[in-house]
Design goal:
It is a single chain. The protein has 217 residues and is mostly helical. The protein has two domains: 9-71, Winged helix-like DNA-binding domain superfamily/Winged helix DNA-binding domain (Arc Repressor Mutant, subunit A); 76-216, GntR ligand-binding domain-like (Four Helix Bundle (Hemerythrin (Met), subunit A)), CATH 1.20.120. The protein contains ten helices and two strands, in the order αααββααααααα. It has a two-stranded antiparallel ribbon with strand order 1-2. A hairpin with a 7-residue loop joins β1 (61-62) and β2 (70-71). α1 (9-22) crosses α3 (45-57) and α5 (103-114) packs antiparallel against α8. The protein starts with 8 loop residues before the first helix and ends with a helix.
Length: 217
């Protein structure tokens, strides 16, 4: 799911396991059978154990002493908490992006916008959506904020996938999402931080993550 350069077996195992969890190929609450999973990924159990440790620190794996290692469960409460934090941080990030972006930042954001397909189509389209938002966050020039949003996005992606699997989205809503993305880019291009913030707040409130809260309640 992430854009990364594979350097070591540990890196590969980490990113591959994270992808399996975020896309729900490894289901919430599923016990991780380390030998079988290592064979599936194509690594030994040593880098897999390191990947499990790292993802436990990110809240995607439950690693309790004397118990089976499991994919972290999902809940309506967690979906709601993620949405609350996103409503605080994503509008801030886009406001800062509008105020601080360079011409190079804007060109990258526009390029990623052009690659978007309807976000409700499939997981690959969801990844393109993530890349677009990442380019907006990076333009904020606030690495702490970018890191926090990256961690949030990985946890929130599971809820997006759940919403994708359970809810049909109308063509009108797809058109609305496309319009919101364009309005965000236009505000960044105009260096209009307040407008960018307002559109992003609306965008988050209508998002798959927001829908997941209602589906899980």
């Amino acid at each position: 799911m992430d854009n990364f350069q594979l350097v070591t077996k540990n890196d590969y195992a980490y990113h591959k396991l994270k992808e399996l969890i975020v896309t729900c190929e490894l289901a919430p609450g599923e016990t991780i059978q380390q030998s079988a999973l290592a064979a599936k990924i194509g690594v030994s159990t040593t880098p897999l154990r390191e990947a499990i440790r790292r993802l436990s620190g990110e809240g995607l794996i439950d690693l309790a002493a004397h118990k089976n290692t499991k994919v972290s469960d999902i809940s309506a409460d967690e979906a709601r908490h993620l949405l609350e934090v996103r409503r605080a941080l994503e509008p801030l990030a886009v406001q800062l992006a509008a105020e601080r972006r360079t011409d190079e930042d804007l060109a990258q954001i526009k390029s990623n916008l052009a690659r978007l397909e309807p976000v409700y189509r499939d997981v690959d389209a969801l990844q393109a959506h993530r890349v677009f938002h990442q380019s907006v966050y990076l333009a904020s020039k606030n690495p702490i904020l970018v890191d926090e949003l990256e961690r949030l996005w990985s946890k929130a992606d599971r809820y997006r996938v759940i919403a994708l699997s359970k809810k049909d989205i109308s063509p009108a809503r797809e058109a609305q999402i496309k319009s919101e993305h364009q309005e965000i880019v236009d505000a960044i291009a105009d260096k209009d931080g307040e407008s960018a913030r307002a559109v992003m707040l609306l965008h988050v409130g209508r998002s798959l993550g927001s829908q997941a809260v209602h589906l899980l309640d």
